[in-house]
Write a structure and sequence with these properties.
Radius of gyration: 19 Å
Structural class: alpha+beta
Strand order of the largest sheet: 2-5-4-7-6
Number of helices: 2
Number of strands: 7
Strand content: 25-35%
Largest sheet: 5 strands, antiparallel
């Protein structure tokens, strides 16, 4: 009976975990030109995380929904600005590797770096640990080794 109870608990936790992880992504949405805490290092203590499925449709790309997070680092006339948002288009990282960002330079001393990710909620901060992943893993370990 104990084995069956443990098995049901594990299946339940894993089902909830995979359902949660498979839902819409949540991203930080802010701009450092209006909120200095949005810069680097990022201070998310006053910035609420945004559920991207709640973001509005964009007129110029009808039917496209945000599935990723984006962080843009921009240097204009020597001043750094940071923009964090839900991303509607693009691919995670470069060639699917989120460790690499797309860099562009422009006229008038403008430099931009685009980092796009979809591995976990809040991935556009750079240093957020997904609590649900850790909690699910710890629960399974505790149940198995009781």
């Amino acid at each position: 009976m104990s084995f069956l109870r443990n098995y049901i608990a594990i299946v339940f936790v894993l089902s909830v975990y995979f359902f949660y992880e498979g839902g819409a992504i949540k991203c930080w949405v802010c701009r450092s030109d209006s909120d200095p805490k949005c810069g680097d290092p990022f201070d998310n203590s006053s910035v609420p995380i945004t559920d991207c499925k709640q973001e509005p449709d964009l007129e110029h790309i009808p039917g496209v929904r945000p599935t990723m997070c984006r962080k843009i680092r921009q240097k204009v006339k020597g001043e750094w600005r940071y923009f964090r948002s839900c991303a509607y288009l693009g691919e995670p990282g470069i060639g699917g590797d989120e460790r690499f960002c797309l860099m562009r330079t422009g006229t008038y001393n403008i430099w931009m770096e685009y980092c796009t990710c979809n591995t976990k909620d809040g991935c556009n901060t750079g240093s957020l640990t997904t609590l649900s992943s850790i909690a699910a893993l710890l629960f399974v370990i505790v149940v198995l080794y009781r």
